[in-house]
Design a protein that fits this description.
Layout lengths: L4 E2 L6 E3 L9 E3 L7 E6 L6 H9 L6 E5 L4 E4 L5 E4 L15 H16 L6 E7 L1 H15 L12 E7 L9 H6 L2 H9 L2 E6 L7 H13 L5 E6 L8 H14 L8
Parallel strand pairs: 4-5, 4-8, 8-9, 9-10, 10-11
Antiparallel strand pairs: 1-2, 3-5, 6-7
Helix pairs in contact: 2-3, 3-5
Length: 257
């Protein structure tokens, strides 16, 4: 079942889907509030499980916001309903992207960041499908707009993607190269990508290819880390990498304890 509903034959959209997002979990900073990062869960998960893990990280200057995706039927699961940031059929460039779902989630996430204090640095991170929506948001930030043309309102300072991929990768290089502002913004945004070589859900080559595509599109500060034998999950070594990278990139105080 497709999410953008079309009238028969004409291809014009007859109804816009409204997506009901689930509960948002917040981890308050234990020290001085220097950065806020929205962290996005994977398919079928919720914000609560990640908020518990992030609370245990020694990053006292970060406020974590962990929203929960809407429940929708997902094509890759045969239409089974579960929490998902957008609809996905299969990992192939031949499959059309769910632009409406991508824009809806990216806007919901940007709205969460828009409410933060002006002196706080803003970032995004995520796992699997959450990483995909974080990377999609990075391209919206560079272009200054969502695919639907609405302006992207947030100044991102860091993006982290674990075990993920880049949706809408086909045309991103041409879109960014068409705008001096987009080139400048892409070059300004550091991105950390991590992927396990034994990932059985999002194959390793998709993570590596996404890193290469982003780099080719003008994202000059891509860090790509791979983990031998790691499947579709996180390990403490990887989260240490995230912690150290964020501390450096965001200039955080006292976070290396």
């Amino acid at each position: 079942m497709s999410y953008s509903q079309h009238s028969m034959g004409s291809g014009s959209r007859t109804a816009r889907r409204t997506f009901e997002f689930g509960r948002t979990h917040v981890v308050r900073p234990k020290g001085k509030h220097q950065a806020t990062i929205v962290w996005l869960h994977g398919l079928g998960d919720n914000g609560s499980s990640w908020s518990q893990l992030l609370e245990s990280l020694p990053l006292p200057n970060i406020k974590w916001i962990c929203p929960t995706a809407p429940t929708r039927s997902v094509a890759i699961l045969g239409g089974f309903p579960c929490t998902a940031w957008f609809d996905v059929g299969e990992f192939s460039e031949d499959v059309p992207d769910d632009w409406e779902g991508l824009d809806s989630s990216a806007a919901h996430i940007a709205n969460l960041l828009s409410a933060e204090p002006a002196d706080v640095k803003l970032g995004l991170g995520g796992f699997s499908m959450g990483a995909a929506i974080a990377l999609y948001s990075a391209t919206c930030f560079a272009l200054g707009r969502y695919t639907n043309g609405n302006p992207y309102p947030v100044n991102l300072k860091a993006v982290v993607g674990l075990s993920g991929w880049l949706p809408g990768a086909r045309n991103i290089k041409n879109k960014i190269e068409g705008s001096h502002e987009a080139v400048r913004r892409a070059a300004s945004l550091p991105i950390l990508l991590c992927h396990g070589t034994s990932d059985e859900v999002v194959p390793y080559n998709h993570g590596e290819k996404s890193a290469n595509l982003l780099n080719a599109a003008g994202f000059r500060h891509i860090t790509f880390k791979f983990y031998d034998g790691l499947g579709h999950y996180t390990v403490p070594k990887e989260m240490d990498e995230v912690r150290n990278w964020l501390t450096t990139r965001l200039g955080l105080e006292g976070s290396r304890a």
